[in-house]
Structures are given as structure tokens and as C-alpha cells.
Design a protein that fits this description.
The protein is 33% helix and 26% strand. By secondary structure, it is of the alpha/beta class. It binds guanosine-5'-diphosphate. It is a lipid-anchor.
Length: 184
């Protein structure tokens, strides 16, 4: 991402969030869609952590979210506790066309709860909702897991730009609500 400069004075709140989930579920494209409104059909994972910023208005406040992307590290199980450190929110992504990426969510949730902040806001995202004919995970499966684990849930398409903005905004708004309550 080239969107890495930050002016802390230009916002009321600044916080870190992370993207997690199996390889090739669409994390990088969700991020570039949200941060830059771009989609890349043959995006190749690059190695190393990348991040992007985006300002959002929540009520009359300007909230700047710093969103970290694993940038392919999950392939080598190389994500360490430092990736999660200080993160107030996580977007946990699976691919609705690959059942295995849904089955692996348990592993990701375990890792999140081990390394992440206790109050971390987690949004579960079933991506690639445009690929209707290839679907292997029903919407109800995502909803049930979200209910069981107390997560927010949404299906998205980074390709067709469906619900991407909503999913990030849901996470950011929730974090803001928790952060502003704490500072009361
Ligand atoms: P990451 O490894 O989780 O960061 O996944 P990428 O963002 O690199 O995406 C992996 C592949 O899935 C790429 O070929 C993307 O073009 C494709 N992809 C990502 N999101 C979508 C989507 O919403 N719909 C479709 N059809 N393909 C997608």
C-alpha cells in the first residue's frame, strides 16, 4: 500500500485494526477496496506486513483506522503476537467458495483470543459473495458461527464492492463506541 502517511492531528481518534484469515480469501482486496477503491483480479501475495489508513466520520468525530494486512505471512504461519499488539478490531475473513477457509476460523479465533485485546471487536466476513454458483458455505453457517462466538457478521464481495464499506464501518463504529465509553 502506498497510503501509509498519517497526520495524527487531523483526526480525533486513531486506532489499529487487523485483517486475518486464510490465504487468498480476499483480505488484500477488501483492504484496497476500502482504502483506495481498487480491486485486482490476479493479485499476488507480497511478503511482509502492509497497512493502509482511512479516515471515517463517526458522528461529528473523525476516526482514522490503521488497517494491517498479513500480506501473505499466514501462508508460512508467520504471524506473531506483534501483529495483534494494540489492535482494537479484527476483520476475520473466509471465502464462501472454499469450505476449508470456514473450518479454519476456529483456529483463527483461538489465535485472536490468545494474542488479541480482551475487548477486541471482531467482524466475521464471508467474502466472494459474487461467486454464487461456487458457494460452499451457506449464509446461515456464517450467521450461526457469529451468533455462537458473539461476532458481527457480513457477506461481502471485494470484486463487486458489495458490503465492503459497511463491514469496515461496522467495525470502526463499534471500536469508537467502546473507546469513547472508556474515556468518559
Ligand atoms: P488474500 O491472500 O487473503 O489477501 O487474498 P487476495 O486479496 O490476494 O485475493 C485472492 C484472490 O481472490 C485474488 O485472485 C483476488 O482477485 C480474488 N478475490 C478477492 N476478493 C474477491 C471477491 O470478492 N470476488 C472474487 N470473485 N474474487 C475475489
Amino acid at each position: 500500500m502506498d497510503n501509509t502517511s498519517v497526520d495524527e492531528d487531523s483526526c480525533d481518534y486513531l486506532f489499529k485494526t487487523v485483517l486475518i484469515g486464510d490465504s487468498a480469501v480476499g483480505k488484500s482486496n477488501l483492504l484496497s477496496r476500502f482504502a483506495k477503491d481498487e480491486f485486482c483480479l490476479d493479485s499476488k501475495p507480497t511478503i511482509g506486513v502492509e497497512f493502509a489508513y482511512r479516515n471515517t466520520k463517526v458522528g461529528d468525530k473523525t476516526v482514522k483506522a490503521q488497517i494491517w494486512d498479513t500480506a501473505g505471512q499466514e501462508r508460512f504461519r508467520a504471524i506473531t503476537s506483534s501483529y495483534y499488539r494494540g489492535a482494537l478490531g479484527a476483520m476475520l475473513v473466509y471465502d464462501i467458495t472454499r469450505r476449508g477457509t470456514f473450518e479454519n476460523l476456529k483456529k483463527w479465533l483461538h489465535e485472536l483470543r490468545e494474542f488479541g485485546d480482551r475487548d477486541m471487536v471482531i467482524v466475521l466476513v464471508g467474502n466472494k459473495s459474487d461467486l454464487i454458483d461456487l458457494r460452499e458455505v451457506d449464509v446461515e453457517d456464517g450467521q450461526k458461527l457469529a451468533q455462537l462466538e458473539n461476532l458481527c457478521f457480513m457477506e461481502t464481495s471485494a470484486k463487486d464492492n458489495l458490503n465492503v464499506e459497511d463491514a469496515f464501518l461496522q467495525m470502526i463504529t463499534k471500536i469508537y463506541e467502546i473507546a469513547s465509553q472508556k474515556s468518559l
